[in-house]
Each structure stands twice: as structure tokens, then as C-alpha cells.
Design brief:
Chain lengths: 247, 60
């Protein structure tokens, strides 16, 4: 049973493939970010209610989406790794965590600087913000747990279990604005309603979201390549890599 | 012209604090990735066997 896509499930074959993909995703992210920033900061008009403060939406919402989405992807890789004992899946989970933490931090930070001019406070212990802060701590916990365990395969399992347990927080973040009275506004974009914002603002936000996606993919792939070399060090194919020979 | 853009009708401090720190964090992530890659490649180079073509395991 040799399905073709299993070919890339081995670190040795995935390493060069990831290396080829990174520049494409990185350039796509950079170009989309440039277009999205231009739309968001220059072209989009001032909001009649919030003034220009609303422009933080162009980084806040994409970062917040990515913070949750990356967690789910990380947990899915962890589940694969736990279920099938596949090394590359565990490495992917390991590679996503820091970028997820970065996105979560950006979502919290930009939210604070949006909250201050619109609500009059940088922070409130409200359901949406508190659960997003817990998400940041989950990412930190998973990264710290990894560093606390010397054997990488044991660390994979421990981090996988923690990541899967933490998935319970994702629907809590997502539905928090419906389940509890929250200072945070409800979602601006939904699949069932027309978006509650002007088309130009929505376009800018979606372009920035795509940029965040591609950035996260490029960063995760770059990190997984480093993880592969680190964990497969000593294997013949790693020793034969020109970047290892010439390091 | 430029100064009105950066002023953002009085919201400049909030907008540029948000955008600036977001950009800074992303730049730091990229720099950390680079430096980690250099370290790991150098470590892998040290565990490289003398004759990499015939070895299957690092000799240390």
C-alpha cells in the first residue's frame, strides 16, 4: 500500500518540498499585506461612528482568526501524531505553536489599542478577551512543556494531549460574544448574514486575512524545516544537505 | 499631507501602537527563525560523520 501522498509524510522528502514552498507563500504574504495595508490605511474611508480608530480591524481580526485557526490545525496535527505515531505530524504541530502564540499576542495587543479609544479601556475581564488570553497561555504552556521534556517523542505525546485538551477553549472564544454579555462586539462577518461593514473595509480585511494565512504557512514551514534538521541530525540525508555541509 | 495621514484624526497613537508592535513582533519572529536555523545547521554540521556518504548515523 503505497499511496502517492505518503511520499511527503516522511521528513526527508518533506524538507526539500517545504523549502520550495516557503518563498511562494512568503512573497504572496508580503504582496497581499502591502495591498491590504494600502486599502485599509489609505483607500478605506473614515468610519462615521468610530473615526479612524476602526482601522485597527485590518490587523486585529485577521490575527484573531489565525490565532484560533492555527490552534485547531496544531491540534489536528497532534491528533494525527497521537493516533498514527507519525513523526512529521508531531513536528508540524511543534512548528505551528510559536506562530500561533504570535498571532494571539497581536490579536490581544491590537484589541487593547482599539478598546481604549472606543470603550475607554485597554482591558476588561470579559469573556472574549479572557478566553483569548487563555489561548495565549495554552500556546505558552505547550511550548514550555516541549522544552521541559528531553525526549522529543515523549514531548510530542505530552504536547499533543495538552493541545487536544485545549481545543475546548476554541468554541468558548468563538461563541463568547453570544453566550455572555460582552464588551466585545459580535462578529462583523458571518456566513449567514450580510457583513456589517462597507465593501471596501471587508475587502481590505479579507486581503489582510489571506496575507496572515500565507505568512503563517511560510513561518510554520520555515520552522518545521529547522525542527526536522534538529531532530533528524545524524541521519545520512541530513549530513548530505549542502546547508549542513557548509554550515 | 503626510502628517495628517500619521495623525489619523487624533487616533494616530492607538493605530500606530497597534500596527507598530504587530510589525515588530512579526520581524522578531522572522529573526528568531533565522538565528535558530543557523544554530541548528551548525549543530548538525558538528554531528556530521567524516564520510557522510557512507554513514547512516552521526558519529558525534
Amino acid at each position: 500500500m503505497s499511496l502517492n501522498w505518503f511520499k511527503y509524510a516522511s521528513p526527508a522528502t518533506f524538507y526539500p518540498l517545504a523549502g520550495k514552498m516557503i518563498p511562494w507563500f512568503a512573497w504572496a504574504a508580503a504582496l497581499l499585506a502591502a495591498a491590504g495595508l494600502y486599502l485599509g490605511l489609505v483607500v478605506a474611508p473614515t468610519d462615521f461612528q468610530q473615526g479612524d480608530a476602526y482601522r485597527i480591524i485590518f490587523i486585529h481580526v485577521p490575527a484573531a482568526w489565525m490565532s484560533m485557526f492555527l490552534y485547531v490545525v496544531m491540534a489536528a496535527w497532534s491528533a494525527l501524531a497521537l493516533g498514527f505515531n507519525t513523526r512529521l505530524s508531531a513536528m508540524m504541530a511543534q512548528a505551528i505553536a510559536p506562530t500561533g502564540a504570535v498571532m494571539t499576542f497581536i490579536a490581544l495587543w491590537t484589541g487593547a489599542f482599539w478598546g481604549r479609544p472606543t470603550w475607554g479601556t485597554y482591558w476588561a475581564w470579559d469573556a472574549r478577551m479572557t478566553s483569548e488570553l487563555i489561548l495565549l497561555f495554552l500556546y505558552f504552556g505547550i511550548i514550555a512543556l516541549r522544552h521541559a521534556i528531553d525526549d522529543p517523542r515523549r514531548a510530542d505525546r505530552a504536547c499533543g494531549v495538552l493541545a487536544l485538551t485545549g481545543v475546548v477553549n476554541i468554541p468558548i472564544i468563538y461563541f463568547s460574544v453570544q453566550w455572555w454579555n460582552s464588551l466585545h462586539q459580535g462578529s462583523s462577518v458571518s456566513l449567514t448574514r450580510a457583513p456589517a461593514m462597507a465593501a471596501i473595509m471587508l475587502t481590505g480585511m479579507l486581503i489582510m486575512s489571506l496575507a496572515a494565512w500565507f505568512y503563517a504557512i511560510a513561518a510554520s514551514l520555515a520552522r518545521v524545516r529547522t525542527i526536522i534538521v534538529d531532530r533528524e541530525r545524524g541521519a545520512a540525508w541530513v549530513s548530505e544537505l549542502p546547508e549542513v555541509r557548509n554550515a | 499631507m503626510m502628517s495628517t495621514f500619521f495623525a489619523m484624526n487624533g487616533y494616530g497613537f492607538y493605530i500606530w501602537s497597534a500596527y507598530g508592535v504587530a510589525a515588530l513582533v512579526l520581524v522578531l519572529e522572522i529573526l528568531a527563525l533565522r538565528s535558530r536555523r543557523r544554530t541548528v545547521l551548525a549543530e548538525a554540521h558538528l554531528t556530521m560523520p567524516d564520510d557522510a556518504d557512507n554513514a547512516t548515523e552521526g558519529a558525534g
